[in-house]
Amino acid sequence: MTSNVIEFLAPKAAALAAVVLTGSLWAPLTQAQQVYRIVGPDGKITFSDQPPPPSSNAKVSSATASASKGVATANLPFELRQVANQYPVTLYTGDNCSPCASARTMLSNRGIPFAERTVNTPEDAQALQRMSGDTSLPFATIGSQQLKGFSDAEWTQFLDAAGYPKTSVLPASYRQAPATPLVTVSTAPAANGSNPAQASAPARPARPAPAPQPSAENPAGIRF
Length: 224
Description:
Blueprint (H helix, E strand, L loop, with lengths): L1 H22 L12 E4 L5 E4 L10 E4 L15 H9 L2 E5 L4 H13 L3 E5 L3 H11 L6 E4 L2 E4 L3 H11 L17 E2 L2 E2 L39
Helix pairs in contact: 1-5
């Protein structure tokens, strides 16, 4: 009898340990969601996890938005809304990327509310490299956990650990937000609240930064 109980409980204990271990992975990457693309007055492009001071007169783009931006949670069922706010899902995709389409379909079929960021330009690729250490797609974040490449089994494990429902509970009225580029350009406010039009000489046009491993078919150097 004791042996049977042990054999019955062992798989459950192992599963629980796996969930606990998986859950412990959420914490180390809490700052991975924000990357700034900075164009200096000399036209030099840099990426940083810190915005430049207003006095620099640099142009700054939010290469990555806040984790939950683009995920509509207001009309979700309470439990799903709680999970989506705590562990928001962001999917990074590119054109002509079959694994990206598979990842999108998997999330949609399971009823996961997610934001989608497209990586189609050299600037997008550089921001992705800064954030994930790679330019492979698809790439996803669940909370602060990073998932590189698509694996149905692996993604299912992390979604389960985060507490997402195993089947869709999305209301019929829910609509997925449209995909947006990873890098969107905006201008930093001028120092001391001065009128930007009165600022010193404008920065020279930014020169496109070289993409990693470019090719004719893949000018952004994105690896699928």
